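Bit of a strange request maybe. I'm writing a small parser for structure token strings and I need a real example to test against, not something I typed by hand. Could someone generate the tokens for this chain?
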Amino acid sequence: RGSVRVFGQEITRMPYRDVLRMRRRIGIVFQHAALFDSLTVFENVAYPLEENTRLPQAEIERIVRERLRLVDLDPEKVAAQLPGELSGGMRKRVGIARAIAADPEIVLYDEPTAGLDPLAVDTILQLIRKLQRELGVTSVVVTHDLRAGFKIASRVNLLRDGRIQFNGTPDELVAAEDPYIRAFVEAA
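Reply from user aminoacidic:
Good idea to test on real output. This should exercise your parser:
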């Protein structure tokens, strides 16, 4: 039950065609990057542009190179590589480059730091903040890593049994008196 509003529009009753149009305004970074194993880095990042736009190939190439640079990857070194040839952190950055290829207004991140070593975690968190600043993109981050979430969040929602248990700032979450929230924060 309830309502899902995106860009001020209720989407649960929206015609499928309109939902597809709205999805083009949203980038998604999957938990384990979810890159196409048989496609090169270039082809992975270009994929949403080729599927959803009619841009000339030269423009797609320019955008892909720009997005790779934006996530701190050298297009000359990685564009021809396959995902299996990359480290976990590099795969995650390629996934982010793909998510931002079509200039979304919102980027959804599913556990963006899962499976990464502490240095790679910091790199990804800094990258998310950089994209928020430089692209003006809104980031919606689903994470169990509370410390990582606090480094990038201006608002926090804590879910419990499918319902929002808390909605506020990270500081308000830490200061909450609710026993479940206290236990959650202390366990993190």
